Amino acid sequence: xxxxxxxxxxxxxxxxxxxxxxxxxxxxxxxxxxxxxxxxxxxxxxxxxxxxxxxxxxxxxxxxxxxxxxxxxxxxxxxxxxxxxxxxxxxxxxxxxxxxxxxxxxxxxxxxxxxxxxxxxxxxxxxxxxxxxxxxxxxxxxxxxxxxxxxxxxxxxxxxxxxxxxxxxxxxxxxxxxxxxxxxxxxxxxxxxxxxxxxxxxxxxxxxxxxxxxxxxxxxxxxxxxxxxxxxxxxxxxxxxxxxxxxxxxxxxxxxxxxxxxxxxxxxxxxxxxxxxxxxxxxxxxxxxxxxxxxxxxxxxxxxxxxxxxxxxxxxxxxxxxxxxxxxxxxxxxxxxxxxxxxxxxxxxxxxxxxxxxxxxxxxxxxxxxxxxxxxxxxxxxxxxxxxxxxxxxxxxxxxxxxxxxxxxxxxxxxxxxxxxxxxxxxxxx
Length: 430
Prior knowledge:
By secondary structure, the protein is mainly beta. The chain has helices at residues 43-53, 330-340, 355-360, 389-394; strands at residues 31-33, 59-61, 65-68, 73-75, 81-83, 90-93, 102-106, 111-119, 124-129, 132-142, 154-159, 162-167, 170-172, 177-182, 185-190, 193-195, 199-204, 207-212, 215-217, 221-226, 237-242, 245-247, 268-273, 276-281, 284-286, 291-296, 312-317, 320-321, 347-349, 368-370, 374-375, 384-386. It has a domain at 143-408: 3 Solenoid (Pectate Lyase C-like), CATH 2.160.20.
């Protein structure tokens, strides 16, 4: 029998450990099929009880059906698998959620979440905090009433974690980012779809990330690689964005006022801000109304003395780029259009850099490198512009847009593919 060492929420302390929802032989890791039918307890009680009583190595199986939950769920046991019957068959609905700031909060390591959906969470759908080893596979997070400012900020949300795998997931309707990995390292996001979010996929203040074979469509911005001030981990670097489909990102920005992502223009394909050593290659990028690729420095004032606001070592090459830049949005898009004309070029760099680099050139490997990219629209060509925002703001009368691709030839060394450390499973009890 499982020992009840962790307190349950009010009203559950006296429950028998031989619950129909969680009948076990608990001397060793086991698979448990959960009963969420409400015959013994509510779905809320049954599921949270199972998450509390789980032992390292356990697999918890969720049945088919849509289950209404009124409070957030939490898991703090290492090496647990929570598995449903599929993201369209097992649905945890938080439409009537009364308490909790997340749908599911995970604060343990070696956890696998797969084959279920979380809908209409009051806050973030699935948040993972401080994990070493988290796998999210065949999950769906969605706010079913469409894009709204009141939707939760994040769909899939690992933060301050390492060895993060997001594979074959879907994220829809987040008011910040559908798939967001922040302040983490050793990250793989692949085979997933993000749609109708403000940011489709966002990697923020993170190290060593591969983002590939995903579809980012009908977001405000498709794929964002950001580094921001004032966070415990900064200096984001070593990120590859490749073999993705980043198309038709045309949803108006619905982020709550004050969010940095609220400054992203509608119709941004791939955006890199203040990171170093980022490689963007092999992607299909088209139909993004402001611009297909945007490379910028951090635009706002900050007080963090350790923060470096400029992008360095950015290499854009081998992409298939179609029509874009025909519908520039917000002050950023309109300013770029004023400087470059419309349609806005496919690849835009704001030109901001440290003053030493501006006058003497960056050190080898620290520049903005634009390799050969292929135009997919009939008769089109891939064009580039350094809008030279430094001179635009400092001496507008002396400003000129720079479009010479040979000035950006070459590139940093090819980045190494990301590998994830294997999760150590617990030994069976004797």
